[in-house]
Amino acid sequence: MTANLIATGYIIQDKQGTAIFGTGATVDEAWAQVVTEAGPFFDAYGNAKADEAAFTEDFKTFPATAALIAKVEAEGGAIAWALVDGICCTCDEAEADDEA
Fold it and tell me: Cα torsion at 65, 26, 79, 38 (round to 10°)?
């Protein structure tokens, strides 16, 4: 039951689940961060891949809490996090939500 979780922005994670590569108040803002910090993108053969293709083929977008976004900004994207009823959050938030 999600009683306390509210999405205030978005995270973008690689489809392999390695790390969160972008955060933002909107999907476009989060994706712009990914393009700036992780691009350019390439396919398995080393050929350039358009940003739009990478967005749909290589990454996942999730709504996220402010606490998770702040944690990613403070610690980087290689952190543990949880998905509760479609909202990404910190592990502490997920635990507190379970207790609610």
Answer: 180
In angstroms, the first-to-last Cα distance of the chain is: 8
For Cα atoms 52, 58, 60, give the angle at the middle one, nearest 5 degrees: 95
pLDDT given at position 4: 79
Question: What predicted TM-score, i.e. pTM, was given to this entire model?
Answer: 0.87
User: Helix, strand or coil for residue 67?
Assistant: helix
Q: What is the pLDDT of residues 30-88, one digit of tens each?
A: 999 999 998 899 999 999 999 999 999 999 999 999 999 999 999 999 999 999 999 99
Single-letter residue type at 13: Q
Pairing of strands 59-64, 82-84: unpaired
The single-letter DSSP state of residue 6 is: -
What contacts 2, CB < 8 A, 6 or more positions away? Answer: 84, 85, 87, 97
